[in-house]
Amino acid sequence: MAIAVTALALCALLQGCAGPARPATELRAAAGTAASGAPSPQSGVTTPREGDATVANYKFRDGETIDQLKLHYTLLGEPHKNQKGVVDNAILLLHWTGASSKALLTPEFQQSLFAPGAPFDVTRYLVIIPDAIGHGQSSKPSDGLRSRFPRYGYGDMVDLQHKLVTETLGISHLRAVVGMSMGCMNAWQWAEAYPSAMDGIMPVACFPAPISGRNLLWRKIIVDQIKSDPTWNGGNYQQQPPAAAAAASIARMMIDGVSHLQEEVTTPGQADQFIQAVKAQSSGGDANDLIYSLEASQDFTAEPHLGNITAKVYAVNFADDEFYRDSLGILQRDMTKVQHGRYVVRPTTDDSTGHLSMTHPALWKDKAQTFMKWLNAN
Length: 378
What we know:
It is a single chain. By secondary structure, this protein is of the alpha/beta class. It has a single domain (7-212, 297-375), classed as Alpha/Beta hydrolase fold, catalytic domain (Rossmann fold). It has helices spanning 7-11, 107-114, 154-168, 182-193, 213-227, 242-255, 258-264, 268-281, 287-295, 330-335, 365-375; strands at residues 33-34, 49-59, 65-76, 90-94, 126-130, 174-180, 198-204, 312-318, 341-346. A nine-stranded mixed beta sheet has the order 1-2-3-5-4-6-7-8-9, with helices on both faces. A hairpin with a 5-residue loop joins strand 2 (49-59) and strand 3 (65-76). Helix 5 runs antiparallel to helix 9. The termini are far apart.
């Protein structure tokens, strides 16, 4: 695997993947237009369709309000209605921190997850991929409010996703909710906040426990580093604070695999190349957006109500993910509280990349296939 940092990897935290804002349009139950600028559909994969939902007078969980916000989303596939006229084939797919729906439309995602015969075959399922609040083409601080943008949390992300699914798309029940990293935690929250809204969830690369340890420390370090930049100005900077680019290197190092970096960065020259590549590719991000997205995780915990989850849960983690080490025993402990729960930890292989393995569905598509077979067994 080349040392050059891919755009997809940087999207994991640096908000470099968002496309230009589009005018709001109303879509319901899969109406929409082809996505301009989206990756070309692979053989047998339908063209992505994009839309925007507008939410007026939204009240965040902490009590803050905003007059209007936009939720951007992408659809793949078509809705199927049962004899009662209810859509019964929708899958909600949730991205990781700093990414957007576009990060899930790469050729690897399309071939591994959406192609005919793949786990979320879009000739069979309607796949809904929203841009979480603060991300992509959904409302975010860099749209203009900057540090005056309301402080959102993961709970707000899930509530807004639920509004999108039920009110904009008119879908009352999902076949599955699948999410990676931040989306993984959102999937746990979906199962607790809206227990009858889905048949199953597949959380990929997270614990249901609060973020702590290394995963909490690096977030705090990056936020403090950016806010201490002389150009920060309380979030009202004239140009991106230089500290944001430096923080990108820390972020990229932390989310990669220890073994992978040990093999790829073996000389000071390669280390310089790694750092410069990260800085170059982080230039499209925004410091406020990054800080908001990192701090949004502070409200997350699914542990207190795991026993109330009624949906099937198939959790997937990676053995070389230093954020969610299997040796901590947290997933094993928490899964005993889930009524219909299964979990698997994918062993480390030559092509795995730590926490970033979740951005490579070719590594876990077999787990997704197992999950869908389990869902469809009844």
